[in-house]
User: Fold this.
Amino acid sequence: MARAVDKRRREFTTVRLCARTALAGLGIAPGPILRGTRGAPIWPEGIVGSMTHCDGYRAAAVARNTAVASVGIDAEPHAPLPTGVEKLVALPEERRTLDRLSTSHPAVAWDRLLFSAKESTYKTWFPLTGRWLDFSDAVITPDPEDGTFTCALNVPGPVVGGRRIDRFTGHWRTLTHDGAAYVATAIVVPGTGRPHLTDGG
Assistant:
């Protein structure tokens, strides 16, 4: 148990080092990145960002909120989900899509990709709304050919620049880092030239 806690603490520390490095690229002075509501990171004024960490992999993405309204990234081990998890996170139509893709493109762990895409979706959604988003509130459809996915929202989406968003478009890829395989997903909501104000509490 102590080793597990130490491992989690190291991940927490190193992913924030990634974030501070990314912020330095924008000319932002280093400082603590605290946890806010529901564990979401609190970014410096005028900045949006996202972090992800899993065993052996950390990443962070940041941008100015005039250029990007929100960003969500996630990385997971490129391996099938544990038994029973797919039924908890995937809607019936998503499971049908996974079955089809697993037959046509068996080299990709599509269930894990779907899970990662839903994580990126939530990380994108929450800063825009301040509200919880359940796994069943978004339908993920991956494109196996061009490395993209769409996320159709089953609930009213956020309003950005006076326009309500009912779907996100993201990118996915598989990659190898230090000999381990991962699947990574990312969503970027373009900015409007003005800071976005959260439309929900």
